[in-house]
């Protein structure tokens, strides 16, 4: 496939899970892809190498999404190396999970920084490079619509911010031909929330299809939105959740 040939994409948190699947899929569809990582340089380089081995173009960049300067630098470097930026996928996130009374101020601040402030800053920086046809796609969670168990208040709150951000971006950038869409995955089999981990069976049972999704299934929707299929979709959320919110 080459629908995205000539396009440049930046995927935050692109070294594992949904981010890695999105990075690979966008590259397979023809885009040059930069992917950010926080700590594991070896894993990020492995994803970039796999993309290159399959005939794509990829660049791994160290950037903690809680670090405003590093995040902006990653956007600037991507545009400098590849000659522009067409697609931003706000994927990096943290999953704080525990009793409400145990949440510390430090945990609160980091969750807000990564899950809410980071996507805003990345979108702000990336939009300056985008022309008509630009895409800002953020990865949220079905938990903002259906909090299925105790202990998820902080996660749900920080991810819910992406709804307002996406609607605002659609209005702010629509006149420039840039779209903004929020993808809401359901239970997805990643290291962060493995299908065989604690609570996995319960989460699978809460979907209409009775199973976890795969990162590749989320990536398929992202690729559709990044391509011609996303031209008239903006300011909205799309659930890819196996019926979790039904």
So how many helices?
A: 7
DSSP summary, beta strand count? 7
Mean pLDDT: 97
Largest beta sheet, briefly?
A: 7 strands, parallel
User: Over the alpha carbons, how many angstroms does the gyration radius reach?
Assistant: 17 Å
Based on the coordinates given, report the CATH architecture: 3-Layer(aba) Sandwich
User: How many angstroms does the end-to-end distance come to?
Assistant: 33 Å
Could you tell me the strand content as a percent range?
Answer: 15-25%
- The CATH topology assignment is Rossmann fold
Low-confidence stretches: none
Strand order of the largest sheet: 3-2-1-4-5-6-7
Which class in CATH terms? Answer: Alpha Beta
Outline type: globular
| CATH homologous superfamily descriptor | NAD(P)-binding Rossmann-like Domain
Classify the helix fraction into a percent range. 40-55%
Instruction: Please tell me the total number of domains.
Output: 1
Descriptors for this entry?
7-stranded parallel β-sheet; globular; 41% helix; Rossmann fold; alpha/beta; 246 residues
Describe the 3D structure.
Helix 1 (17-28) runs parallel beside helix 2, helix 1 packs across helix 7 (215-226) and helix 3 (68-82) runs parallel beside helix 4 (105-127). The protein is α/β, with parallel strands linked by helices and 246 residues long. The two termini are 33 Å apart. It has one domain: Rossmann fold (3-Layer(aba) Sandwich). A 7-stranded parallel beta sheet has the order 3-2-1-4-5-6-7, with helices on both faces. The mean pLDDT is 97. The protein has helices spanning 17-28, 41-53, 68-82, 105-127, 153-173, 200-205, 215-226; strands at residues 8-11, 32-37, 57-62, 87-90, 135-139, 179-185, 236-240. 41% of the residues lie in helices and 15% in strands.
């Amino acid at each position: 496939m080459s629908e995205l040939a000539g396009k440049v994409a930046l995927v935050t948190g692109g070294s594992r899970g949904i981010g890695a699947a999105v990075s690979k899929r966008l590259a397979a569809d023809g885009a040059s892809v930069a992917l950010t990582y926080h700590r594991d340089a070896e894993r990020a380089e492995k994803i970039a190498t796999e993309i290159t081995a399959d005939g794509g173009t990829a660049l791994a960049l160290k950037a903690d999404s809680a670090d405003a300067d590093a995040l902006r630098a990653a956007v600037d470097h991507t545009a400098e190396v590849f000659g522009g930026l067409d697609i931003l996928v706000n994927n990096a996130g943290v999953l704080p999970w525990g009793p409400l009374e145990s949440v510390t101020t430090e945990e609160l601040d980091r969750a807000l920084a990564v899950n809410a402030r980071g996507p805003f800053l990345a979108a702000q920086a990336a939009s300056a490079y985008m022309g008509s046809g630009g895409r800002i796609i953020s990865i949220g969670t079905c938990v903002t619509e259906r909090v299925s168990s105790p202990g998820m208040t902080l996660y749900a709150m920080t991810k819910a911010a992406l709804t307002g951000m996406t609607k605002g971006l659609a209005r702010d950038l629509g006149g420039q031909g840039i779209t903004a869409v929020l993808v809401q995955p359901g239970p997805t089999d990643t290291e962060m929330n493995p299908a065989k981990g604690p609570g996995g069976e319960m989460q699978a049972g809460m979907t209409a299809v009775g199973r976890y999704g795969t990162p590749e299934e989320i990536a398929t929707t992202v690729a559709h939105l990044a391509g011609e299929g996303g031209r008239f979709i903006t300011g909205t959320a799309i659930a890819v959740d196996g019926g979790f919110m039904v």
